[in-house]
Amino acid sequence: MNDTISLLKRRRSVPPPMMTGPGPTADELTTILTVASRVPDHGKLAPWRFVVFDGRARERAGRLALDIRLEDKPDLDEAARAEERLRFARAPLVVAVVSRAAPHPKIPEWEQVLSAGAVCMNMIVAARALGFSATWLTGWMAYDVRFRAALGLADHERIAGFIHIGKATAAVEDRPRPTLAEIMTNFPE
């Protein structure tokens, strides 16, 4: 079995609370984002971009999430407050993949959205290939207009995912996967 297939067969999501540092170096992050950008992109639109949360920016994003959450739920208990504050700080690095899908005369928006999803998956594979663990999450913030605006997203931009990257503190057990018989059919001749 070649290295790429072996890597893909072992891919697991590692919850951010099970991650530690160090995170990727600047050169490793450049490699990860470069690989992430090498996805199908009909029309060469680059219908996605990145927002990187590193260092103290992770804590700032958590405080922002907490402030917005408290607007909706001022009676949030201390455990829930801590959860929001730590949301971006559990992994050494978090990258938001922002979908910039927009109407286009030739390229369907759906293809642009799928391209952003492919960016997320390429990022996870690239991080894994460099020896990191990575997890693709969204959470309420991805859908909250106030949070997106605070990140500087345009009205038409959406968060395809927050990719958390770090080193796993323990092995993660695999979850049940569907058998091919459950998910595959052959188109009749």
Walk me through the structure.
It is built from 7 helices and 5 strands. The protein is α+β, with helices and mostly antiparallel strands. Helix 2 (about 25-35) runs antiparallel to helix 5 and helix 3 (about 55-70) crosses helix 4. It has helices spanning about 5-10, 25-35, 55-70, 80-85, 110-130, 145-150, 180-185; strands at about 20, 50-55, 95-100, 135, 160-170.
Structural class category: alpha+beta
- In N-to-C order, the SSE pattern is HEHEHHEHEHEH
Shape: globular
Please report which band the strand proportion falls in: under 5%, 5-15%, 15-25%, 25-35%, 35-45% or over 45%.
15-25%
Determine the N-to-C terminus distance: 31 Å
Q: What is the percent of helical residues?
A: 40-55%
Number of H/I helices:
7
Radius of gyration: 18 Å
The tally of strands reads 5
Largest sheet: 5 strands, antiparallel
Overall residue-averaged pLDDT value: 94
Low-confidence stretches: none
Descriptive terms for the model:
alpha+beta; about 40% helix; five-stranded antiparallel sheet; 5 strands; single chain; about 190 residues
Task: Describe the structure in brief.
This protein has helices at residues 3-10, 26-36, 56-72, 78-86, 109-129, 145-150, 180-183; strands at residues 19-20, 48-54, 93-99, 133-137, 158-168.
Give the SSE layout.
Blueprint: H1 3-10, E1 19-20, H2 26-36, E2 48-54, H3 56-72, H4 78-86, E3 93-99, H5 109-129, E4 133-137, H6 145-150, E5 158-168, H7 180-183
Helix pairs in contact: 2-5, 3-4
